Amino acid sequence: MPVIALEPGYGGIVRDRQQDFNGVQLLFIEWAAHPLIACPITVPVPPGTRFGELLSGALTQSVFGQQPDWPTVDWSRATWRMNDAPFVPDLGKTLAEQGVAHKAFLTLTT
Cα–Cα distance between 73 and 52 in angstroms, integer? Predict the structure, then answer.
């Protein structure tokens, strides 16, 4: 969301650039329409992480993995969106190879 400064010429310091996160990028991930997950989560992951590793690592260790539904997700039927556009992840490719950039917003629908 853009912010409009009230002071003319104001130039704030951006403090959430990828280079400020020691080699990792932030991803915002929503599990759409899940009855127990009310909002997106943020996970820090290296851009070289394979999408399959994101699922089995960071997301399994997150609040998503704590849900009883997580182990029963049928990944062949799950759908994804990235920044509100359809996205078909390749589990063997890295986030960077698939254009999943710092502060990307991913939506999982199961």
Answer: 14
Q: 3-class secondary structure for 12-64?
A: CCCCCCHHHHCCCEEEEEEEECCCCCCCCEEEEECCCCEHHHHHHHHHCCCCC
In sequence order, which residues have a C-beta less than 8 Å from that of residue 3 and are 6 or more positions away? 12
pTM, to two decimals:
0.88
Tokens of 95: 């986030």
The 10s digit of each residue's pLDDT in 1-16 is 566 777 888 877 888 8
Counting beta carbons within 10 angstroms of the beta carbon of residue 71, is it exposed (0 to 12), middle (13 to 18) or buried (19 or more)? exposed
Tokens in use for 77?
């039927």
Identify whether the C-beta of residue 26 lies closer than 8 Å to the C-beta of residue 43.
yes
